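Figure 2 data, in text form.
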Amino acid sequence: MYRIRRFEEEVFEFYKRGLMPGLAHLYLGEEAIATGACAALRDDDYIGSTHRGHGHLIGRDADLKKMMSEILGKASGYSKGKGGSMHIMAMDKGILGANGIVGGELPIAVGAAYASKLRGDGKVTLAFFGESATNEGTFHESINMAAAWDLPIVFVIENNLYGISVDIRRVTKEHKLSSRAIGYGIPGHTIDGNDVFTVHEEVGNAVERARAGAGPTLIECLTYRWQGHHVGDPGDYRPDEEVAAWKARDPLFLLEGKGLIAQDDIAAITAGVDREVAEACAFAEASPYPDAAEAYTDVFVN
């Protein structure tokens, strides 16, 4: 979780320095979801990610140097700088790609799960998406197909309450989004997305259920993004008291408060991560941009 926190803070710094093309959607405040959920997977499982996807890659132990290089548009990035922040991927870690289209990762994830079932390879796909994606047609179509065919997939809603500036509670009648599972005949659970142990347990149970052939589960993780929708959004449409209340439930503080990790160990972890992230930043900043001719490679045309 601390690795995600520090990585995202440095991404924000690169943006403020004008070194990052485009925008990034930071995962600050949501670290427990990616950490707990990804820890419940096997190394060969798949993940469908979102435009706010850096945390998912880090949760899968992706290469921080390749990640930061990709975000800066450098040739040493995971996709040679062509994907950037919103389309970052790590196929070596089962990350099928982040997606700038709201809900766009859902059909991809269902396709991966369908392939796994046809091959009988025992793999499970984890599909991350935000609360606003549950109002997209792709959500309903994907979850219906997965439920009808008992596909090995777990749907994880990262409900941080706001789709850009719109409060999800203004545009849905039923605010408990996991209730939508009822219509598809699958289990649905709403959990504390800031408690890494709760996330790990619930997702772990759903993953094992899917791997056993019992089909999908819908898990709604309640959380909060600390920043605006993206690095250029001040986020001032949210009440100050709401932001303060959620920041008081910082996933890292909640974990530290359980007293399960000695202070010396915490200090060692943070120092190690700080060095790791600093090295990734230095590597990315020093790396070259891709040659213009690269624009014509890795492009598939009918």
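Caption note: Residues 131 and 159 are 5 Å apart (CA to CA).
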